[in-house]
């Protein structure tokens, strides 16, 4: 990096979320920034061009994807150091979340290049909310590793994970993923959320065994997010006092009604019995 680059006031990097389906799911701020910056670094310029054309944005683009992330980050850093303002976008959602971006962001931290986050749509968060599972605490796994050894290790780590689990998966690998989850985690409840914000948006909650049966007969289509309920807490001896038992789950983030249902299931009694004792 030459001396003129160091003396030049650096540009700014804008990390911009883009729609995950419906093109209307973009903020006014992101649209303004995409128009005002000097350059857009896009995961797939052909994909981003559709978004830019939709909003009549003419800003030049350059490709920035997983296969050139290392070398292209250095090129973009040089441009930033020379005063170029750059918007970083992925094909959909937030750059850096299971998408390219982390390498460039880290380099900007190292060189103290100004950065701004421009939030928006996120498939993982949207699917988690749509699933109805506990969202107070969750574990974002992104895509499970493709390497068999690493994949088995990841699945083994999820066995005792009590937080709601968020996983990205491709349609052609869905059935295999469901079978692996069932094998490692047991017959937990899962929400298969697909085509978020699009015409055929769907969120179906089933037991893993039921999901396997369904997708064995019906091929999955569209972008997918899997939301898996967390493991039950390892408690060998439930509190003798029913109130303490219910409060145990309330403190974990459950509603009183759900906590009473869970306590009834633990004890093998009717929910009405728990309700009467808890409400005394």
Please characterize this protein's 3D structure.
The protein has a 5-stranded parallel sheet, sandwiched between helices. The chain has a 5-stranded mixed sheet with strand order 6-7-10-8-9. By secondary structure, the protein is of the alpha/beta class. The mean pLDDT is 91. It has 3 domains: 7-121, Cobalt-precorrin-4 Transmethylase, domain 1, CATH 3.40.1010; 124-228, 2-Layer Sandwich (Methyltransferase, Cobalt-precorrin-4 Transmethylase, Domain 2); 242-278. It starts with a helix and ends with a helix. The chain contains 12 helices and 10 strands. The protein has helices at 3-7, 28-36, 45-54, 69-81, 102-111, 123-131, 148-158, 174-185, 208-217, 242-250, 256-267, 271-278; strands at residues 13-16, 39-42, 61-63, 86-89, 115-118, 138-143, 164-169, 189-194, 202-207, 224-228.
